[in-house]
Design a protein that fits this description.
The protein has helices at residues 73-82, 101-111, 130-134, 160-169, 181-195, 204-207, 210-226, 239-242, 261-265, 271-274, 287-299, 335-344, 350-364, and strands spanning 4-13, 16-25, 28-33, 42-45, 50-53, 55-60, 85-90, 118-124, 143-148, 174-178, 231-233, 255-259, 304-305, 381-385, 390-391, 410-411, 414-420, 423-427, 430-431. It is of the alpha/beta class. Strands 1, 2, 3, 4, 5, 14, 17, 18 and 19 form a nine-stranded mixed beta sheet that branches. β7, α2 and β8 (118-124) form a beta-alpha-beta unit. α4 packs across α7 (210-226). It starts with a strand and ends in a 14-residue tail after the last strand. The mean pLDDT is 96. It binds (4S)-2,6-dioxohexahydropyrimidine-4-carboxylic acid (DOR). InterPro entries: Amidohydro-rel, DHOase/Allantoinase_Hydrolase, Metal-dep_hydrolase_composite, Metal_Hydrolase.
Amino acid sequence: MSSLLIVNAQLVNEGRIVEADVYINEGRIEAIGALTGQAASQVLDAKGRYLLPGMIDDQVHFREPGLTNKGDLITETRAAVAGGITSFLDMPNTEPPTLSNELLKEKHQLAVGRSLANYGFYLGASSENIELIKSLDVQLACGVNVFVGSSCASKLVDDPDVLREILTSSPVLVAAHCEDMPLIAENEESYRSIYGDAVPFELHGVIRSDEACYLAAARLLEVAHDCKARVHILHISSAKELELFSAASMAEKLITAEVCPHYLHFSDEDYASQQGLLKCNPAIKTIEDRAALIQGLLEGHLDIIGSAHAPHLFTEKQGSNYFKTPAGMPMVQDALLSLLENYQDGIFSLEFIVEKTSHAVAQLFSIQERGFIREGYWADLVLVDLEQPHVASQAQAFAKCAWTPYDGYPFRSSIAATLVNGELVWHEGRLLERSPRGQALQFIR
Ligand SMILES: O=C1C[C@@H](C(=O)O)NC(=O)N1
């Protein structure tokens, strides 16, 4: 493997921005500082640009195996690296769902030589695989994923005794999707009785309400508090849920929470133009919810940002039948760019974005030697240009479903380059055709 010298970069790392050069050898960061004269097989001038640790995305649905008409590890990791994501944690709702060691191993095998980014996979929890959770190979799974009352789930877990057993016996972090199904079903029926199948998408956030999210999360957290277990709640989407999460530092708390760029960018006003494209679970809610989530993130109630990339075919997303339109949106390519809009608006600092998309994720999931720009760490890096705009478009979407909810949006920043394990994989608007060398993430256990 060749060496690479990045010169004149503004390094955004561990709460500071400093100008420095970075020397990369054999995939790792070997030196950081003023490195004039350092020989390297390739030099990248980063003048005027910002070098961040690559985003570690704690929630993607890359659809392999079984749902590869919607996405696969090749196409979705192309989109990920084009968006500055260098590592991802993939959810278990594939076909078959990832409910055993064998299926975890199969996912690992599928990623070798095909994934452009580094990978980790969740084991799905159900009432039937608790023994496996107890004896889980802790390097094979990045976490255990539990669906508390959501219709997207292959396996729902609603019984508090089962939840308690999962929380107390899991040797790895439990990450939960929380929405109360009975309440959602009630809401669905009341609007179906008015509109039939053509329920306006504008009502998605009313049907999959803040109350539904709150109830399921509160139920799970009651169990977690009771047994003093750690749990991570995925994609918080409403102001109401925020009261469940303390603003203590991540190291001091057992309960952590994730938010996604789309909840910080879109609001229910966007359903009018986007219709079913914007349908995702939990639903995007009101402008007030969006403002509260931004505030909750700034104050530390929310700990990390993940994309919740969930691709579905454009055709599937375009019908008027509310119930048949699948929930989820391709997000990896535009997630970081969306957050950089919050930077451009003066809401988040670059250091804050790095903390929430990289440092905190590496810490929460105990990921070894990634998530920071440090000597000896893997060179997973993203170079962003804050002055070169980029208009998102379907034509440039790398995800297999080939669309984006940001279509036509004029991002004020762009992703100039992405390096995974020291190799340039995305550069000046082009994917570099290298053999994919994403690695299995290693965890400190
Ligand atoms: O939790 C989920 C699952 C996802 C999917 O399509 O896999 N789509 C969603 O909108 N939410």
